[in-house]
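Re: export button greyed out
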Amino acid sequence: MSVIPGVVAINTFREAVRDRVLYNLIFFALMMIGAAILVGQISIGIERMVIINLGLSAISIFGIIMAIFIGVGLVYKEMEKRTLYSLLSKPIRRWEFLVGKFAGLLLTLVVNTALMTLGLGAALYCVSRKFERADATILVAVYFILLELALVTALALFFSCFTSPMLSTLYTLGIYVAGVFAPGIQGISQFTSNWVLAVVTRFIYYLLPNFHNFGVIAEAAHGDAVPLALVWHNTVYAALYVLLILVASAAVFSGRNLK
Amino acid sequence: MSKRSQNKSHTRAMLLALVAVPALFAICAALQMRIDVDTLAMNQDKEELLLRSGPLLQKLSLGYESLLADIYWTRVVQYYGVRAHKPGATYEQLWPLLDITTTLDPNLMIAYRFGAVFLSEQPPGGPGRADLAVQLVKRGIAENPDEWRLYQDLGFLYSIHLKDYKKASEAYLEGSKNPNAQIWMKVMAARVAETGNELETSRLIWTGVYSSTKDEQVRRTALQHIHSLDAMLGLRRLNESSEDYWRKFGRFPTSMQELRDAGLVGGTLQDPAGYPYVMGPNGVPQLDPKSPIQLESQQGSGTLR
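Workaround output, generated via the alternate export path:
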């Protein structure tokens, strides 16, 4: 098996660290400390819930911002700096380069998310002085956020293969928002009496990456269990969808004239 | 990499994509169906409305409150549509959703008019909260005093659901003062005041609702009520014939055929769903047990033995 994607991934991760991408952790830490101090003063009985909601939402939002803004520049930046040409002159296949870039950004996001989760755990401990069994759902929610980030990264990378960072950002963000509101699209198909609209909206519902699947922050805040089947199905869904986007990206990128 | 080998590589990648992408989409769609089942089971009993304050949402809407109201109205329709006539359905969020919708856009007439119908329907067709429906319509009138249709809705709520015929008549009369109001508003005011508790009057009101809306959900509800009232009127007529039979023969009929043979009834003795009426014990006519029609609560002079 080729080690090239791994090498590209490590270099992408190093580059992100060099670019001070992980500095957002400072902001996250300050926010969690502030919330832990303030929440006791302004809310009664729901301190834990506020911390979990705030922490998980912040992990998700920070991750998505990073995935989009770094992801859309992954290929474009290499072309702008002309480093891609020297890279591809070596025995590296284009798909290997793409997979490496994807894995590198995902690694950055995993490290970032893991550190933020530790911060959330610390804030939670400061507020309630204990961990409960139900808090395990927080880890499921974090895992789902990572699946979501993998999908967003793949989308950003896909658009980065053929368009400018500005347009890639718009496209990725647009698909993300549409994917979050996917149940609303399905709702149209259920309630419209126009069969053409029903078929079209149903098709769009299944075509779009369904980001709503990964939203279990409310369950985590309430300590409700997430069915194991959902964890398993979401994992396979995200993996297959990422594979799909990477295959499409490789096809587009392989035909790209880099001269 | 040479140009030729690059072309070859591109062709290979395109072929792979052409086969793999649709196949993966199909698998993802199938998987999504399984996930929908998982999430449905998880969210079955959950009714969440994070922001309940209309004024707060109005501030957060950044000037797009009208658009937001449209979105909330869509949510109302979906919320009601999913639950309507499902046994055990709860409608906890119906009022908050309508409250938010009408706060965001106080001129959204459809939200007052249909919202009132949704709120006032008895379970399982709705939450049976005619009091909240009246509150909603009154709010609509305060915001849109020129809309005579809202007075019609108010009269409808008072007469059909709250049985307050005096207030119903007042509402119809108030609405009839609007120069654009239909002439029958005055007729309704007089008729409800005199014979509000009669089945014929109820039927007239529901027919007014049916003919004044294009919304399928509301039309369906109105039609169910009209059918129910027609069935009650049919049963009442048969009941009168059954009493005539008793007076004539000193006993109650045991079948519809006996009534027919005695020349007391004629024509097709069917309910509006097409099921024949049947004779119950003591000569009390009844609906066929298989008939989908559900009778209204026994009202007015339509009381049966």
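Chain A has one domain: 4-254. The button fix ships in the next patch.
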